[in-house]
Amino acid sequence: MTVYTKEQSEAGDCRLLVGTSGFSYTEWVDAGFYPSGTKAGGMLPLYALRFSITELNYTWYQMPRADVIERQRRQAPEGFLFAAKLTRSLTHEIDQEQWPAHAVQYRNGVAPLVQAGQLAAVLIQLPPSFAHTPPNRKYLAALLDNLGGLPLAVEFRHRSWASDRVFRELERRRVTLVGVDEPDLPGLFPPLDVVTNPDLFYVRFHGRNAKGWRSGNMQLQFDYSYSDDELRQWVENKIEPMSARARRGVLFFNNHVRAQAPQNAQRMVKLLKQRGLTVV
């Protein structure tokens, strides 16, 4: 499989940001990441003391509203960045007649982040059922067209999308292919170090809980803590090569159970710095 290297960055030129997929978890209070008594509304300022970016998960469940996004943006310090997940009505529950209007609504909802220069990416997370078929290719192309101008990143869950032809099309569009770490199960998209956009690479760490992955229970699916050796292998074998081919990289941990995500993210920051990579 070809590894795309459209533009080489100068050594050490890539700036890396590490965070977690979501930040508002009550169990993180019990786990000690947030002080006792911390309410959901007060979590983002505390999170921003430790990380410079977060992934907004709630925008998958409900369409973002500009007023809500603006209030949230103001809770974080200047320069803090957000990746926002695309709403499920555009990825998982697609209405062939209504989706163009939903795309416009989504764009309007995240506008405050765009205007403030704080939107790192829009995460288009596609379901495992979204295989590489002609109708799905056509829909994805139309969706990318409708969201044109936004920084887009596509996460495939079905292995059939892992092809040079797909990567070349993403590269042509300057759309980021999301790298994934997840259980080694039949049909899932493999872990790759392919860079399709020299402006940004994007990696999500979901954990490797094979038994819980298809359980339908998120507490089981994302219950996993990475060892230092597992993280180090990613740094040396994938993140370093990807850093040589992009100007920015964002890494998110989605193994949120018992605050394993922020623990692993903080450890990842240390390992990256030990390798001489630039973490901001």
Compact description:
The chain has 280 residues and is of the alpha/beta class.
Description:
- Helix 11 packs across helix 12.
- The chain is 36% helix and 16% strand.
- The radius of gyration is 18 Å and the shape is globular.
- It has one domain: Alpha-Beta Barrel (TIM Barrel).
- Strand 5, helix 8 and strand 6 form a beta-alpha-beta unit.
- The protein has 280 residues and is an alpha/beta fold.
- It holds the Pfam family DUF72.
- InterPro entries: DUF72, UPF0759_sf.
Radius of gyration: 18 Å
Overall structural class, as computed from helix and strand content, comes to alpha/beta
- CATH-level-4 superfamily name: Protein of unknown function UPF0759
The helix fraction, in percent, is: 25-40%
- Specify the CATH architecture: Alpha-Beta Barrel
Could you tell me the number of beta strands?
Answer: 9
Mean pLDDT: 94
Trace the largest sheet across and list its strands: 2-3-4-5-6-7-8-1-9
Written as H for each helix and E for each strand, in order along the chain, the element string is: EHHEHHEHHEHEHEEHHHEHE
Morphology: globular
- Gap between N and C termini, in Å? 31 Å
Poorly predicted regions: 1-11
InterPro entries: DUF72, UPF0759_sf
Organism: Candidatus Desulfatibia vada
Pfam families: DUF72 (PF01904)
Protein name: DUF72 domain-containing protein
